[in-house]
Every structure is written in C-alpha cells, then in structure tokens.
Amino acid sequence: MVISKSGQRQYSNRIIEIDFLRGIALILMMLFHFLYDLQEFYNIPIPYWNNFWYYEGKTSAILFMFLAGISCTLSKNNLIRGCKIFLIGMLLTIGSYIFMPGEYIRFGILHLLGLSMIIFHFIKKIPHVWSGALALIIIILGNMMNHITINTWILIPLGLIHGDFVSMDYYPLFPWFGVFLIGTIIGKVVYKDKKSIFHIKRNRGFINFMGRHSLFIYLIHQPIFLSLLYVIFHFILKDR
Asked: Fewer Cβ within 10 Å of end Cβ, the chain: N or C?
C-alpha cells in the first residue's frame, strides 16, 4: 500500500481479483454462520447443514483455501504468517471450549490455513507437476478417510476421527490441504509476475475492502452477530 499526493490510500501492491473473491468468500461465510447462530442458539428451524446451505458454506471455505494458496506464492514470509494464523486458530479453540465445550473447534479453517502456510514454506520449490500429484493424492486419501473412524483423537488434524467426534468447525489436512496446494499451483502459473490479470488500477469498493481485511472481519463477525441476536431476541422480541 502507498499514499498518493492527494492523501488517498492506493493499494497498488494488491491483486484486485483476489481481494474481490476473498470478500465474496467472506460474505458467504458470514451468511452461513448467521444461519448457524439462529439454528443453534435460538432454535430457528433452518436446515443449514443440508442441501443448498451446506454447499454454500463449503463453497466459502474452499474459496478461502484456494485463495490462501495463491496468496502464499505472492508472499515472502509464509512461515511467520502461518504461525500467526495457526496461533489465532488455537485461541479460537480455547475460546470455543470455554463457551461451547461439547462442540468446540478442534481443527478449524484457521488451523488448516496456518499449518498449510507453514508446510508450503518448506515445499514451495517443488515442481508444479509434483504439487499437482500431491494435491490429488491428498484429496483422494482425504475422501477415503471420511469413512474411517479410530479410537484416538491424536490424528484429528489429519482427518481421522473417533466415533463421537463433534466440532463446530473442522477442516483437516486431508483432503483440504490438497485444495490449498491447487491454489499454490495457480499462483505460480497465473500470478508468476505477482500482478493482476485484469487491467484495473482501482482496488476500492465494499467487497474489496472486506477482502483486504478478511482476517479481522472473520474474528469479529461472530461476536457482533451473537450480540445483535441477543438484543433482538431478549429485548425487542421478548414480549411479542
């Protein structure tokens, strides 16, 4: 980011379409989480885990993984970024355990993205074909592991769970690290010059703004949603 002579901020070092798509993913995720809150905390009969809403939520998560993979090819400090995001994921684990111990976040999307960035730091120089093969293997194995249960929680990050496993957010390395790797391949091929593929100089607009600040919005949106719903259901709709 640079400051122009007029004093306005210009995000010349950012790729516009990545910010835009990340903003779209954030909106989809927020909508899914809002429906989740209505169902889980206020018993509003919304089938968020079936049919359209299930795939809407998964589309958001996959888009985040894919874009994170692309972004990693544009960054020089993936190890630090990965450790930071994984640490934030662990803080969410602690917080969710305090408030919802029965289904707290064991290995959510921030854990996945953080660990994926750390792993990519050490394998970033492998050829595209090997990255693609590895991604395919991870996705196939991950889908096979969906049908396997074990008697320990130790392998939860890999995708092997025990029979009574419950988590409000769960994205293990198998198969989802494969999606991340596909993003890194696209980043290396399509964005090898670290520039937008569109000839657009402005990176403004609400969706792009959200995309530029996606981590911050991700962290604050649920407390805001839950606070608003609490006011609505306990004060506004209480006597109706």
From this structure: C
201-218 pLDDT, tens digit each: 667 799 999 999 999 999
Instruction: Please provide the size of the chain in residues.
Output: 240
- What is the model's pLDDT at position 12? 53
81 vs 73: CA distance, rounded Å:
13
Within 10 angstroms of residue 27's Cβ, the number of other Cβ atoms is: 16
Identify whether 175 is preceded by a cis peptide bond (ω within 30 of 0): yes
Chain-centroid distance, C-alpha 69: 11
How far is Cα 2 from Cα 32, in angstroms, rounded to an integer? 35
pTM assigned to the model: 0.91
Positive or negative torsion for Cα 141, 147, 152, 156? positive
Question: Residues 11-25: what's their mean pLDDT?
Answer: 87
Tell me how far apart the alpha carbons of residues 133 and 131 are, in angstroms, rounded to a whole number: 5
With both helix axes pointing from N to C terminus, report the angle between 16-42 and 51-72 in degrees, rounded to the nearest 10: 140
Residues 6 or more apart from 237 whose CB is under 8 A from it?
none
Taking each helix axis from N to C terminus, what angle separates 78-99 and 214-231, rounded to the nearest 10 degrees?
A: 20
Here the tokens at position 207 are: 């969706």
Give the number of C-alpha atoms closer than 13 A to the C-alpha of residue 198, restricted to the C-beta side: 11
What's residue 240's pLDDT?
60
